[in-house]
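ARCHIVE ENTRY
Sequence with per-residue tokens
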Amino acid sequence: MTKGRIRRVVIVGGGTAGWMTAAGLSRALGQSDLSITLVESDAIGTVGVGEATLPQIRDFNRLAGIDEREMMARTAATIKLGIEFCDWGEPGTRYIHPFGTYGEAIGPAPFHHYWLAEMANGNVRDFGEYSLPIVAARAGRFEPPAEEEGLGAYNYAFQFDAGLYAAYLSDVAQRSGVRRHEGRIVEVESDGETGEVAAVVMETGERIEGDLFIDCSGFRALLIEQELQTGFEDWSHWLPCNRAWAVPCATSAETAPYTRATAREAGWQWRIPLQHRVGNGHVYCDRYISDDAAAETLLANLEAEPIAEPRQLRFTTGKRRRMWSRNVVAIGLSGGFLEPLESTSIDLIQSGILNLVTLFPAGAIDEADVSEYNRLMDLEYDRIRDFLMLHYVLNARHGQRFWDDMREMELPASLAEKIDAFRQRGLTPDYQEGLFLQQSWLSVFIGQGAVPEAFDPRVTSMSASDRHARMERIHSAIAGRAGRLEPHLSFIGKYGAAYRGEGIRR
């Protein structure tokens, strides 16, 4: 391991991963004797389709000292209150995974058990009607939640142009002292004794030395794999989608405060509305549909004319066996990829950054810190994998080979246990930390038709009439609160309307 204190950090690769890392580290670790250099080449493109985020990005914005109004204006951002899933259950069904809670505590049992009891009694309302962010999203309304928000507590994220976001973070990071070095890396030099990366060599012959290297080189994984050969855990047997077509189109519908994921024959299609355009993509498995047919499916289901040529991405779901190896940390696509179904790509970048900040060596790199970093990232990837798989294995698209195979696949024990616990007793994972907590699992279980065999017996401590009256009051209060929120586009116009010209050239 590196013997001395870390004084030189070299980030290999720009894009969202590179510049998020640069902005985060420079703000959190900006001591005067730490230099941060980011190396990127204008000639090498970035993936740049991760346009939808999760609420945790607001934590990153605070860490990096980002003004959200400015960020929204610079990236043509809209608000995101959740993700709508269409046709994943029975044909014609749809539900929203919200960034918030359902109902409120009305007795000793969790709220959804009272809803299950109502359902058993024939008093059925859609579960989403008890969630303020869902009702607001469907009505196209939004206001930032008040600090004291009780009933219907919620959070929000952003939908933005990923290319513009990277450019904006580049400005933020360079204002904080990060040095950008333009050029193509042609060689990686390693220390013959320790095996650590010592320097990257540019096309010009210049050497850029470092003590800690952050690999943000995307799927190429220039340092973590090509140089250190860390190894890759292939999860395509659990998440088989391995390709995507992406294309922007003009906006023809209301710019809604949510992302949409619509099931297709051999995958699914995303819709992400921005201020100046709509981002679209078709994620699929090439064992079930040809590339040409997948592209045709995407183009046939756009709401308006495309404004660019479709671009294809190829990937394998999984992760590196070690995200931190020797003096190299892989962040972003170089570390792994779990497909964009729940907008996790940017959040995994953020998790990598925040864990690195927490475990950043005070002196030399310590193996205990490296092991803890890898443990935390492995846990994050494992839990996200299970949550993404849940959508597929609970599908009700019978008679389509891809979806039939997904329902019948052999599950990792960690996911099988969660599904059994919900189907038998309506239990959800009791995570205290992590990306997807109880309310998220609940939204997918119920949204895709998984009904527990029994509800919590503590529900019966309340009379059926009293329970129904309380549920109706909650429903009425949420509907009233949502109706008083500002129209989404009105909020955008006042809070973060995109700059004309420089801000939204793409």
